[in-house]
Amino acid sequence: NIYFYIKLSFNIVFKNEINEIGLDKYDYATIFGKGPTFKNIDKKDKELRCAINQAGNFANDVDFMCMNDSHNIFKINNETYRKLKYLLIPEYMHINQKSCKEGYFDTIFEYLDKKFFGNLIIYDLSSSKKKTDYILNLNTCQSSGNNCFEFIGKYTNIKLIDLYGIGLKNKNKYNKLFV
Hints:
3 helices, 26% strand, globular
């Protein structure tokens, strides 16, 4: 068992608690990334609105954000953090494209405290050398977008997911909003 004795403004969610955080109330998901097909759309009833990294600063009404890289934590607006219900990060976040002990998830507690008030969901990124029994397991490791998609498919009852700004439509890697 792991115990934390510090009071934070957010909940830390491990494998045994994933079914207790309200993800079962959503029927539909939209994932927003920074790619060329990014656009804002109206939010639907019972929609889990997801964003990858800084797309959360631009997409409307984001509930859920996924980040694999430590440096992205500091690129999210405080207002975006305040409105989030869920933040999905690996146990060992990437620093310089590699999972490492300096990216351990507890290193961001102080930064997120009093900014984020939702559920911090911790998972094992497959690039991590250490596997922890009480952490959610995700098998994909190509991008935060892939991890978000896999999480929704594996840990929610959502069957329909729309993507905006995920994947490449042409040679442009990012929507002009993010350049």
